[in-house]
Description:
The complex is a heterodimer of chains A (103) and B (280).
Chain A: H1 3-25, E1 32-36, E2 50-54, H2 55-68, H3 79-92
Antiparallel strand pairs in A: 1-2
Helix pairs in contact in A: 1-2, 2-3
Chain B: E1 2-10, H1 11-17, E2 24-26, E3 30-36, H2 40-54, E4 60-68, H3 71-76, E5 79-84, E6 87-88, E7 99-100, E8 113-114, E9 118-120, E10 131-134, E11 139-141, H4 143-151, E12 157-164, E13 171-180, E14 193-194, E15 213-215, E16 217-218, E17 223-224, E18 234-236, E19 240-241, E20 254-256, H5 258-266, E21 272-279
Parallel strand pairs in B: 6-10, 9-12, 15-19, 17-21
Antiparallel strand pairs in B: 1-3, 1-4, 2-3, 5-20, 5-21, 7-8, 10-11, 11-13, 12-13, 14-16, 18-20
Amino acid sequence: MSADQATVVQARSLYQQRLRSAQEAYPNSTGYEKHHFVPLYLGGASNGQTYRLPTAYHKAVTQQFRRAWPYGQGRRPTPQELQKILLEVYSEYPIPQLIGVTP
Amino acid sequence: MRETIEFRIAERDARLHLEPGLGVSLGGSIRKVVLPMGDARVQRIAQLNHAYGKRGDAFFMSWNLRRSYTERELRSAELLNWVVRAHFEPTGSMCGTVYDASSECPHCGAGARQVSELLLDTRRIPKGKDIAQTLSGEMVVSSRFASAFLEQGLRGAEFHPVLHHGRGALQASDWRQLVVTSKPLVLSPRTVAGNNPFDLDEAGAFRCPLGHVAGLNQISELYVEKADRDDADLWVTDTLFGDRRGELRPEPRLLISPRLRDVLWAMDAKGYALEAAHFV
Lengths: 103, 280
């Protein structure tokens, strides 16, 4: 297995683990929601790239974004800071479609 | 005034460079570190961020300067920065509010003119607040705040209707749009703006060449020119902060008189913080 393949396998396993944790944390959050790849509060466009995520997982991703850059601070990240936030959040909470998983 | 700074740092980076007991873990992968601005570790973190920046990375993901004041300091301030703490989305334009973008600055995106009533999903306005703003900077106040402002004879603002945009027809709401009508106060160059407290944007990447925007973020307390000040109780700065990015727009800062501060305190208003500001 190549290093790239191993990374994808690891990310899929992490997604399943995070999804289970999210469903335990938000048992009443069923169905799916649209997730903006760059959240609006960080400067994402309302018509920007979105992914359909299980609602519980969407909540967990949103919470992780807000840990990285709290909501409603009246400040803006630099492009470098934004890149760091996206990398850190999505390395912990992968977007399933980007690792070949149908949510 | 006590100034602290809060950082959010990836746990992996924090483990590499910071002492283990410094800060608290958020969810296991992010560390929150709060330090007084004068603490030597703040400079260490700034140096680390600079070093990370040289390789196209960043050491901290987020920073936040907090200035806290004693009641006496706020009582003695001749001018105050009214900092809105309650934010929400969707924005007005996402709910159908119409803007004329023809007057928008091609450099910084400031200057779009609202040409319809403000339409919002008012269910999304944070509960129990007296002032809140959308991610685009549209400001709404509670009807009790608008009434108190008018009853006390305060000057410098109008309160326009906010229409609720839900699934059905537009409906009237209890919220009012805060429209500042006083003459904007001229931001003094003593006000520090920048990308973060350690990067004041020397290259001017986020400063508007036409002077509309001072920088990406407000770093210091606000300083404004005393000359040409009118006798209002609420003002905006003539120069803005931020950038045009997605739904975000450059925004002015709000300033209030001690009279308006007293009204806010008397009604125990919610959704804001106050910082001292200065006439120069």
